[in-house]
Every structure is written in C-alpha cells, then in structure tokens.
TrEMBL record:
Coiled coil: none annotated. Transmembrane segments: none annotated. Residues 11-206 form the NAD(P)-binding domain. It comes from the Eukaryota. This is NAD(P)-binding domain-containing protein. PANTHER family: FLAVIN REDUCTASE (NADPH). GO terms for molecular function: biliverdin reductase [NAD(P)H] activity; riboflavin reductase (NADPH) activity. It comes from Phaeodactylum tricornutum (strain CCAP 1055/1). InterPro entries: NAD(P)-bd_dom, NAD(P)-bd_dom_sf, Polyketide_Oxido-like.
Amino acid sequence: MVDSQSILVIGATGRTGLECVRQFAALSPNPFIHAFCRNKSKLSIADQNRCTSIIEGDARSADNLERALADSSATDVILSIGNGDSIKRTDIRTASGKALVQVLKLPAYKKVRTLVISSSGAGSSQIVVGMGIGKLISFHLRHILKDHTDQEAAFYSIRNRTTIVRASALTDNAATGKLVEHGDHEKALTIKTDRADLAAWIVNQICDTDDSLALGRAVNVTGVKK
Ligand SMILES: NC(=O)c1ccc[n+]([C@@H]2O[C@H](COP(=O)([O-])OP(=O)(O)OC[C@H]3O[C@@H](n4cnc5c(N)ncnc54)[C@H](OP(=O)(O)O)[C@@H]3O)[C@@H](O)[C@H]2O)c1
C-alpha cells in the first residue's frame, strides 16, 4: 500500500512538516512525497531530494491548494500550518483549513484523506495540568487555541476522512519513540510532544494497513518520560 500512496505535506518547511517529509522518505518502500510550501529555498538540497515534487503556494488559497492536489495526485494530505512560536491572534490555521476543505469537497478529491495537526486544548479538549495551571496555559495560548478550534470545525463536513491529532507543547531533540493518547478532559501523562515522535505517529497512521487508523477521530497525544 505504501508505495501507491502519495502524500502532500502542507507546511513542509515547518518543523513538524519537515520531520514528516524526512520520515516518509526513510520508509522502504516509501510513498510519493510532495512538499507544499511558500518558499522552496527554505528546504536544504538534501530535503528537496527527499521529495517527489515541491509545490510552491499559499495555503490560504484554494486555487493554490487545488493545483497541489491535482499535480500530486495526493491520496493523503497532512496539514501542518502554523506561525512559528508566535502566540498572537491569527487565522492562518482556520483559513488554510477552510481553503483545503473547499477543495477536498470537489468530486475529484472525494477519496483524499487528511490528517490535521492541532493542539491540546483545541476543540472539545482541555489542557489539564493541575492547580489551575492548565487554565493559565490555555489563556496564554487563547489565540492559537481558537485558531485550531476553528480549523478543526472546518473539517466537520468531511470528518469521516479526517484525522485530527492534538499534540501537547511541541519540542525537539527529546524523542522517546513513543506517544500516549489521553481523553479530552483527562490529565495528560506529560506536557510535551517531541516533533519526531509526532511525525512517527503520523507516518504510522497514514501508512498502517490495519484497521487502527484514527480516521474520523480527534486524538489527543503527548510524549512519555524518558
Ligand atoms: N508549538 C507548539 O507547542 C504546538 C503544540 C501543539 C500543536 N501545534 C501545532 O502544530 C502545527 C505544527 O507546528 P510547528 O511548530 O511544527 O510548525 P512551524 O514550524 O511553525 O511551521 C509552520 C509551517 O506553516 C507554513 N505556513 C504558514 N503560513 C503559510 C501559508 N500562508 N502558506 C503556506 N505555508 C504557510 C510555514 O511556512 P514558512 O516556512 O514559509 O513560514 C511553515 O512551513 C501547527 O499547527 C501548530 O499550531 C504546535
């Protein structure tokens, strides 16, 4: 199955998007990997070589996304759009989600599956840390969480072919090879998710051939302690 899959990574120059590109490329056999980004020169030559194609465009533009879906013949899309570490008010996640759903509703793309990277505390989930700290974090991140909540809502009409993964605070260089899932209102085991672990979870979801796919679900994940 993997070698007939074509993965379009939207936000491929971002930290999680790029990790997904690298991990898909490391599979043997590996799927076709198409990187969608604003500026291809942000990718190193080695990373460019990992991609079957690189498609430049603006993720807010349904026209740009439709071109990417058509050119890549994508079977699966990963939406990994963000704004670096900014916590300012933004609608980039919502706007790109809405634009993507507009395209995915077209008859030509009705079989395409999407995995949306969202955040703990978005949608029906809560950040539960204890001693009221979860509420403080949620307030601090309120603009991001609203953007992710509205992004998730954009996918409601195609939820049967959408997986939403809500990660705790993303970090790097602390991979343990394992993520754990938790309930929407449950205290998470840890407060951090390593991007390499998240990418591995995503690769497994998209390439796994058994019935464990989280399609149609929103899954809350976090890392484990070393
Ligand atoms: N940070 C956290 O703790 C945390 C926790 C949970 C979930 N998340 C979510 O996880 C996702 C991935 O996070 P990350 O930190 O790995 O992402 P990131 O490094 O901030 O990357 C974001 C990507 O989005 C791209 N992008 C932004 N606007 C775009 C546009 N108009 N058109 C095309 N591409 C655009 C960026 O492109 P450029 O390279 O051109 O800027 C970049 O490739 C985000 O949705 C984030 O909100 C983050």
